Amino acid sequence: MDSLHTAGIHFAEVLQAGPPWLEKFWISVTSSADPKCVFTICFPLAYFLDRRVGVSVLWVGLLSEWLNVILKWFLFGERPFWWVHESGLTRKQLVTLRQFPVSCETGPGDPSGHCMITGAALWPLVTALTALASRHSKSLVVKLSPFGAYILLLLAVGLSRIFVLAHFPHQVVGGILTGAAMGWGLQGRTPVTRSLGFFVASGLALLLSSLALHGLVIAAGVDIDW
Fold this sequence. Notes:
This protein is an all-alpha fold. It has one domain. 74% of the residues lie in helices and 0% in strands. The longest helix has 25 residues, at 51-75. It starts with a helix and ends in a 7-residue tail after the last helix. It is a multi-pass membrane protein.
């Protein structure tokens, strides 16, 4: 893993050595793609456009948020900002990296929550826009434009997380693939006909299950809060 981590650090160096104007862009992307935006921005907008799509965004976002936490507990995953010092890499070779206000994230880093949760929650919206485009245009470019924008967005989010030293490249790739797979797998299983109480109860059940799992893992002697 050290070789993989070292390669990730060098990739972050290359990103940070880019044009100065890109710095503001990457920081803006990583801030705008915060997972909480799925619930505060994406869900209300999707619900306004179509109730079924909005509920799907909410449901997939809720489950992906929960699974991301669980995966991080078991996969652990170093954070570049901390690893570069703890590994002793800076004593072995010259490393030119910059720190940003959003760099000092704590907790396990694998997979990337920004990539995974955003990728999962936006899948229902992207497929709905693709279907809409297909009904109004015969152009393949127009039909595929929503998925093209989706892919470009996730790539930008992933690169921004590497740029600010929040994640290694392999954590970003894992987050993107897991998120897209969740979105694809859960989209058709959204309980759109259920009441608000069902979603409140589901959220509470996920919260309690994660707290119970946390307690069990700690009791087993695994320090997931390292």
